[in-house]
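Entry 0007
Protein: Tripartite tricarboxylate transporter TctB family protein
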Amino acid sequence: MELDRWIALILVCICVAYGYAAFFVMDGNLAPFMRRNPIWPSTFPKVLSTLGVLAALGILFAPKKATTKEMEIDYRRLGQYHLGQAVMLLALMVVYALCLRPVGFLISTSLFLFLGTFVLGERRYLIMVPVSVSAALVVWFLVQQVLGIYMRPFPGIFGG
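Output (structure tokens):
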């Protein structure tokens, strides 16, 4: 079996476990007044797990493509696959997760988006700065105002 099918099989297992938790475990601890709401805290995980299982099954049972030598990963030449960028992005994600609460959502998300595009090779700063700041503002507005979930926008010293 090819690598993409092995990864799809692993993703099916992860999504099934996540779906089990979303469908059967998360709703058991709901307060009685929340059980009458049309959208529960487990609604988004249910949708994510269902879509994840469907997408992974689509990859798993897709007809086999004719592979060329260019599409296969040569494990002996792993250093030619921009491995440094992938490691830097993973490290940036860990730093983002650690800085989210103390630094605040807007600053940490804007910096994460800016530095992530920088690591991937973008160098047009006049585009990177407004896009990263506006994306962070839009996501914060949607989560804070539309969904009603409080997220600290700034660090505590700035009144966040």
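Curator remark: The helical segments are 3-25, 43-60, 83-103, 105-119, 125-146. Residues 3-25 form the longest helix (23 residues).
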